[in-house]
Write a structure and sequence with these properties.
By secondary structure, this protein is of the alpha/beta class. The strands form three sheets. A four-stranded mixed β-sheet has the order 5-6-8-7, covered by helices on one side. It has a two-stranded parallel ribbon with strand order 1-2.
Length: about 350
């Protein structure tokens, strides 16, 4: 059992991971937040990983490059002062996978290819301009490659306002890219971006992942399948979820409150739908198999009142007071509940 304070979540978690033996790390994780009554049957663990992910995978953490915007988490080659943190992130990544908890991480497919030990190629380059330029070089059939592209086996980039250079092979600054060696240039350039430039950071991350997953058969998965296990599916089908939902406590699919609930869901914008799913299940994405495979329960939480809906995220159960046919009241109370959802308690 891991017990942590919300206010020092990252600090305390990293302390406990450092203290743990590898065999202890591989045990099923159970989490409690100090001062809260949540009984961890899975939901608290899901929230624990979600909160950690918001910190660790934030663009403000300094661990990820800003070259590709906020929608991609890619290792920052500039970060050479905090290499150990990548190992701890790798452990948390492995723990989430081991405990079947979805992570809110935006890794490109190249990360999953690397974990599985698969080769990388031009299609894995995240920068569309670089990818397009290298493809144009490969597609150029004339003999004047050297004059048209004016390239050598050297890479230049800006770091903290200073121009940096690195040769892709010994003496590369003096080796022109020609029709004969352009394939070699592209291969070396791709390897530098995806492998060599982040070798320290990647080795640390991979070490952390394998502390948890070394005896697992990850090589049975395709990269796309592994990604789905880690982050879930962003495609939310609430019609499929409705068809799979069970009702308890006196509710049926024809109850006024239930019908108003699904009316609210289907009329809501995507951001509200995502927050609602997170409120009820502690995850903002669908599990493998899609929304129709997610076990979801709507339980009657007493007669009409001014109480807000609550949830047992460990059981994917929404506790919904019987607001009857009053749609506006349900919409107001449910809207407030999903906006004020931080915290986990049982009443």
């Amino acid at each position: 059992m891991v017990q942590v304070e919300r206010e020092k979540l990252l600090e305390r978690t990293l302390e406990k991971i450092k203290q743990a033996e590898p065999k202890e790390v591989r045990k099923r994780l159970r989490v409690s937040f100090k001062g809260e009554e949540g009984l961890d049957a899975g939901g608290v663990t899901k929230e624990f990983f979600q909160l950690l992910g918001e910190e660790l995978f934030s663009a403000n953490s300094g661990l990820w490059t800003s070259k590709y915007g906020d929608e991609i988490n890619w290792f920052s080659s500039d970060n050479t002062w905090d290499i150990k943190s990548y190992e701890l992130i790798g452990i948390l990544f492995g723990l989430a996978l081991y405990n079947s908890v979805l992570l809110d991480v935006r890794f490109p497919l190249a990360v999953y290819r690397k974990i599985l030990g698969l080769p990388l190629g031009l299609e894995d380059i995240m920068d569309a301009d670089i990818r397009r330029g290298l493809q144009q070089l490969l597609d150029y059939e004339c003999d004047d490659v050297e004059d048209v592209f004016c390239l050598t086996f050297e890479v230049t980039w800006m770091e903290l306002g200073e121009e940096k250079r690195i040769e892709l092979k010994p003496g590369g600054a003096d080796v022109a890219v020609t029709k004969q060696n352009k394939e070699e240039y592209v291969l070396r350039y791709v390897r530098w971006i995806l492998v060599d430039s982040i070798q320290q950071q990647w080795n640390s991350f991979e070490k952390g992942v394998m502390i948890v997953m070394e005896s697992s058969s990850l090589d049975l998965f395709l990269p796309e399948e592994l990604e789905l296990l880690v982050v879930g599916s962003p495609e939310l089908d609430f019609n499929a979820l409705e068809a799979n939902t069970k009702y308890e406590g006196g509710y049926t699919k024809d109850s006024d409150t239930v019908m108003n609930f699904w009316k609210f869901v289907k009329q809501a914008d995507r951001e509200t739908q995502i927050k609602l799913l997170k409120f009820a299940t502690a995850s903002s994405k669908a599990t493998i198999g899609g929304s129709g495979k997610l076990p979801f329960v709507i339980q009657r939480a007493g007669p009409d009142s001014h109480q807000l809906p609550t949830s047992h995220t460990c059981f994917n159960t929404l506790l919904l007071p019987d607001y009857g046919s009053n749609y506006d009241k349900l919409a107001s109370c449910l809207g407030r509940a999903i906006l004020e959802c931080e915290g986990f308690g049982l009443e």
